[in-house]
Amino acid sequence: MIFAAGARSGVFVSDAGMKVRNYFDVRTFRWSEVESITLSRGRAGTLLLASGEKIRLEGLATASFAGAKRMAQDNELIAALNELISSRRMEAV
Questions:
Q1: Which among 33, 40, 74, 89 could disulfide-bond with 29, CB atoms 3.0 to 4.6 Å apart, if both were Cys?
Q2: What average pLDDT does this structure show over 71-75?
Q3: With 0-12 CB in 10 A as exposed, 13-18 as middle and 19+ as buried, what is 17?
């Protein structure tokens, strides 16, 4: 499953965890390390780790000038991803 708006960036999920690909960086996290994702203005989001560290997510969402319908779809995707994070974290315990 892939959540991305940019051609080279995005969040990729698997049974083991998630891979975050930004423009110049790729990092992989186990489900137990991931807390939540929030969507920021513009095309970025933030991944909050259980340790408190925040990872910027590049190219995750539609540009801020997009219409309300597209922005609502982005918010729905982030909500679905947070539900997945929550369920996977509970399974990992």
A1: 33
A2: 80
A3: middle
> Is the pLDDT score of 2 beyond 60?
no
CA–chain centroid gap for 22, Å, is 11
pTM of the complete model: 0.79
Q: Which parts of the chain are beta strand (E)?
A: 2-3, 10-13, 17-21, 26-30, 34-39, 45-49, 54-57
Return all residues near 8 (Cβ < 8 A) that are at least 6 apart.
21, 23, 59
> Which amino acid, one-letter code, is at 38?
T
Residue 40 near residue 47, CB atoms below 8 Å: no
Tell which wins on pLDDT, 23 or 62: 23
Strand, helix or coil for residue 12: strand
